[in-house]
Design a protein that fits this description.
The structure is a homodimer. Chain A is of the alpha+beta class. Chain A has 17 helices and 19 strands. Helices cover about 35% and strands about 20% of the residues of chain A. The two termini of chain A are about 25 Å apart. Chains A and B meet through strand 9, helix 8, helix 16 and helix 17 of A and strand 9, helix 8, helix 16 and helix 17 of B.
């Protein structure tokens, strides 16, 4: 009723950019993973910050939930309208506002995707390095504090969002941060908004750090006899201080899935894939040193290449790994896990997880950004098979508690969304209620992506 | 009255570790800069988190302000008890709790100073790089989001505090963050606490990132004909991507002050001081490339050294620069400024500031961490000379607004304390009231360092 009134007013505001078509609602109710279809009541396509502001004010006055929507690539259902309301799709706000080449930063609208940004930057000598795999929107990436393959070198969205424009729950528009490289001017509101999954406000503008495109890039791939050797090789590489831009682990099941999906012919063994950024000489040195380290752990078939085509093939394969895993089992959906532990506990975490999955009836390929201590098991389930789903969720829960026991976190980069809310109390204790206090202070009506991240009374 | 009751109860809790001696009160009421003596009503020396918790509960029940105190090196009076209350001096909580060598992190108590930490780490091959000059406590550094000479390479406290234990205003103790290198698990409470200057809680434990001690370090110093050339050389160096660990600017007045104070004999010209971290070959290459860049800007007398004694002499001189400037004028106190702008606007910001100071009757040496776009003018005033103080404050105010006009911040690293509160509205707009909302949510009684950072009704 209240939502219906809001939709009527939103139609007046946005005209045909407020959609209630079945296909639009379904598109904005789907999930990349195992969550059931959860369509919103309407989809708004604002073109300006001013429209977002008006839109939020209308929703606030009618207690209508407001849920940001980027590229729809969340793995935890962060954008699903679990209490109904309006999905705010930022696809029409996808402009590069300004590249500040001398300062290595760029101001963008939130609907721009990371690949679009890098295409735009192709002649500048600069690039935006954060790479979660999916061609996510930058607003979505900021909302979930995304990272991915390059975080070991370039950090996460926490480290790369310098400033933001945010529309708050009462329609106020604030600017957080600045283009200065550092500041000690009060509470870090940019850092608070990044990772808040749209529960405190909606990004309408982001200022992002850029990085100089490396003069040379080399990539290497290497097989190991077993998972432990591969993981221990990573730990040794990190501890010896070889500066990697990427270091990825794929277990045998993932390698086989990728071979089938991408037509590659890697041996049926666990693999590491690495990338080095630097000068011609630097990356060659790094690759050679890495080759020496992995030899100590029985690394086999080590080869590296500075040729772009080889690298592209390798990372395309890696980026498709999730879909390759899904394709292992026709019609399967996935419960995706995402734990991150201190590097010294990584082998233990991966081993226990592998054993736990092996003792279950499910397939669960393991892969991850092991340079950060972060890895995923892709737990495959047949949709509608409740018994399988329960087993997957139990495996996922044990992984979360394993991460906490080992001094880590239950989500390295995917965020909380719907899938990880149940572990927030275990991870944060009273800190979680403090998050709730902050939410209540900024969004007393609980209209911004309600039901995510925090639990209100 | 209420405070008196709190002090009585605190005496029962802490015995002679609750001090009301005149000398203790005076020590905790002094400032490194121009703020008048502002003694608290008592000084507490807790030994454990549990004691801090009890202490805060007592203060909360009697509306008694609680102000954290580290090494007393704040330049903005962040630790002054402007509404009375209890200074919580962490000097007895100065232990290294655990070095996690494999994970490159360390857990410490907040009273430990950065130099004490590095002394402790001397045989590990690791170090804690953040260097604000003063031998500040790590709790104080986290509270003010400190940085300093090495931020251009290693970031600020925002980037190097991984996790914390915090005692909140109601006596609850929370743990924020974890030892995982990244996390997407909800709001970034660690980031919120870092830089909040004790207004949201008191740090009782910090987990800090460590870094591998570089195999080689080289330092270089170089004079320029004028300030603009030096600043433009910095911009070119940054843009060309030479990886510097430090790049510091000293104007002629600062150089002369240092010569007089430290017995050096640098020419009466603006100088840059830089440091490179890496391999033997790497730092030699970096120094050579830097020499080529500065030659384009008329850099004179360029010399570099990888010898530790030379470097130590150089950085000792730099660290004493503030005291050297103060010594320029017998009995002077300083209004210290701290603006930070995008690097492309740095020359403009420094030039305008120089001209503004030159047009005033005050001495105001300029120096700073120019690799971040951050610099300070040390405005010297005779204590008690109100006219001079007003001129200094007006110069400071114009600097703050200059920084904002150029897309920067009015404080790069010193924080807000008492000195910069007046510019918060200009820098943050409605964002400042959001900070107030957060403060009210976490500290409704406004007992944690009241009167700092935020303005409550």
């Amino acid at each position: 009723m209240a939502i219906a009134t809001a939709l009527t007013e939103l139609s007046s505001l946005l005209g045909n950019r407020l959609s209630r078509s079945k296909s639009d609602l379904a598109e904005h109710g789907r999930s990349e993973t195992h969550f059931p279809l959860t369509p919103p009541d309407g989809v708004a396509y604002p073109e300006t910050t001013q429209e977002v502001k008006e839109l939020v004010k209308i929703c606030a006055s009618h207690d209508c939930p407001v849920i940001g929507w980027g590229a729809g690539t969340s793995l935890e259902g962060a954008g699903l309208a679990i209490r109904g309301g309006v999905a705010v799709d930022f696809r029409l706000m996808d402009q590069v506002i300004k590249v500040n080449q001398e300062d290595l930063d760029v101001v963008v609208q939130p609907g721009l995707t990371r690949e679009e940004l890098n295409l735009y930057l192709r002649d500048t000598g600069l690039f935006f390095p954060i790479d979660p795999g999916a061609n996510a929107s930058l607003g979505g990436m900021a909302s979930t504090r995304a990272s991915g393959t390059t975080a070991v070198r370039y950090g996460t969205m926490r480290d790369n969002v310098m400033a933001a424009q945010v529309v708050l729950a009462d329609g106020r528009v604030i600017r957080t941060g600045s283009r200065a490289r550092k500041s000690a001017a009060g509470y870090d509101l940019t850092g608070l908004m990044v990772g808040s999954e749209g529960t405190l406000g909606l990004f309408t503008e982001l200022t992002l750090k850029l990085h100089g495109r490396p003069a040379a890039v080399s990539a290497a791939v290497c097989a190991f006899d077993d998972m432990d050797s591969a993981v221990n090789a990573v730990i040794a590489t990190i501890q010896i201080g070889i500066p990697m831009a990427r270091i990825e682990f794929l277990d045998t099941a993932t390698v086989l899935a990728c071979n089938a999906y991408s037509g590659t012919d890697f041996p049926a063994q666990p693999h590491l894939m690495v990338e080095f950024h630097g000068s011609d000489k630097g990356v060659a040195d790094d690759a050679t040193r890495f080759g020496e380290v992995i030899a100590d752990f029985g690394g086999l078939g080590f080869k590296w290449s500075a040729a772009e085509a080889d690298r592209n093939a390798l990372w395309t394969m890696r980026h498709n790994a999730y879909y390759a895993c899904l394709a292992l089992r026709k019609g399967a959906r996935a419960v995706v896990t995402d734990i991150c532990v201190p590097i010294s506990r990584l082998a233990e975490a991966v081993e226990e997880t592998r054993d736990d999955i092996a003792a279950s009836p499910l397939d669960g390929p393991i892969l991850g950004h092991v340079g950060d201590g972060n890895f995923h098991a892709i737990l495959l389930v047949d949709p509608g098979d409740t018994a399988q789903m329960n087993i997957a969720l139990q495996l996922s829960e044990r992984m979360a508690h394993r991460a906490l026991r080992l001094g880590g976190t239950m989500t390295g980069e995917h965020g909380i969304g719907m899938g990880k809310l149940g572990y927030m109390a275990a991870e944060h204790g009273d800190g979680w209620s403090i998050m709730g206090d902050i939410k209540r202070a900024l969004d007393p009506g609980n209209i911004m992506n309600p039901g995510k991240v925090v639990k209100l009374n």
